Amino acid sequence: MKKPLSIDEYIAQFPADIQELLQQVRTAVQQAAPSAKEVISYGMPAFKQNSVLVFFAANKNHIGFYPTGAGIEAFKDQLGAYQFSKGAIQFPLDKKMPLALIKKIVKFRVKQDAEMASLKKKK
User: Fold this and answer.
1) 79/101 Cα distance (integer angstroms)
2) β-strand partners of 45
3) Closest among 107, 106, 96, 74 to 82, alpha carbons compared
4) Which residue has the higher pLDDT, 8 or 80?
């Protein structure tokens, strides 16, 4: 797989069914963080404001969603149906993407990102 230069290029590398899931995640993030800029970081689609809010990526059996440790910690009671670790949540390819949950997590990250940027400015 060649290194993509945009999220469109990243998504285009996958079969149509995976493209559709990736696009659903992308749209959910865009809706929750309309001011965020789309970037490719570490070879994955990411959305950035002051810092990266979230990453996501297609894997063999799941879509990986990476909202930082704080993003997972804040919602871990709502993640029971999914495998997750300190920095990643796995959404199985054979299940409906939890778009409402993704939006909640992204909105949390937008708020957190703004607070961290405000603190940096005060220093």
Assistant:
1) 9
2) 40
3) 96
4) 8
37 in Cβ contact with 26 (< 8 Å):
no
Distance CA(18)–CA(60), nearest Å, equals: 10
The string of DSSP letters for 57-78 reads EE-SSEEEEE-HHHHHHHHGGG
Per the model's pLDDT, the better-predicted residue between 81 and 48 turns out to be 48
User: Taking all residues of the chain, what is their mean pLDDT, rounded to a whole number?
Assistant: 95
The ranges assigned to domains in the chain are 7-122
Model confidence band, residue 91 (pLDDT cutoffs 50, 70, 90): very high
The residues, ordered by sequence, that sit 6+ positions from 73 with a Cβ below 8 Å of its Cβ are none
* DSSP three-state, residue 84: strand
Contact 66, 54 (CB under 8 A): yes
Fold of 7-122: Aspartate Aminotransferase, domain 1 (3.90.1150)
d(CA 66, CA 96): 18
57 vs 119: CA distance, rounded Å: 30
